[in-house]
# Entry
Amino acid sequence: MIRIALIDDHPLMLKIVRQELSRDLDLNIIWDTTDSNQMTALVNSDPPDVLVMDLAFAGQGFEPVSAVRDLRARFPQMAILVLTAYDDPLWVEELLSAGVQGYVVKSDDFSLRLAEGIRATAQGRTFLSPTAAGGLAAARQKYTLTPRERAILRLAAEGRSNPEIAGILGIADGTVRNHVSNIYTKLGVDNREAAVRAAQSLRELPRPGANLRHELRTPLHTLMGLARLLQTKLARQGRLEEADAGEFLQQIVLEAERLDGLIDDLT
# Structure
């Protein structure tokens, strides 16, 4: 039995993943959470064999590469598999370098690949879904910035102040200032916006619009997951109970409205 923990900031996505994995008798989900700040404490109290984690946690001050490095240092026996809508090749390469053993892009029909990925990573093997594998092949490059500098610049691109970045990464404010100064020198710029643009141009940060694409894909993947849950229930039962149908329809409408709102914000 492989013990699994799930972390995703979307409760409905957690429900969908739970349902997808419930069909596999060798997989046991021991806990899940939507709060990245609870992750280390939960892993410490009940460590899984495989931690399945997303990369984005809105408003929670989460830097995934630094988090993975910290988890790998504290819990070297635990495998980490990323399940995310982010498909930028830079994420794949940097997270694998940080210690992730698996990377599954949700648009690669994760329902067909997640269980396989969990089993592979639990056995110490690397697992990449097709988009992630293609991204890794495209991303190989020599970097100008260090991993710490890229982590700081990613948080700066989110609008985080130096003290906020220091708190998230667990380093001193002065250390952040020194790193920012080094970033400016390496990139030949004198402000954060220019540094972010230069790093994106060098492909050391995800390309512009990556966060927006993720926000749009999240409700889309949730709708796809709900559709799969409906298919599963119909296959098992031959029909849907009225209560199930009402719940699913309500969730579908809410996610469709969320997606519509995000599209409206683009105009």
Observations:
- The chain is about 60% helix and 10% strand.
- Residues 210-266 form one domain.
- The mean pLDDT is 84.
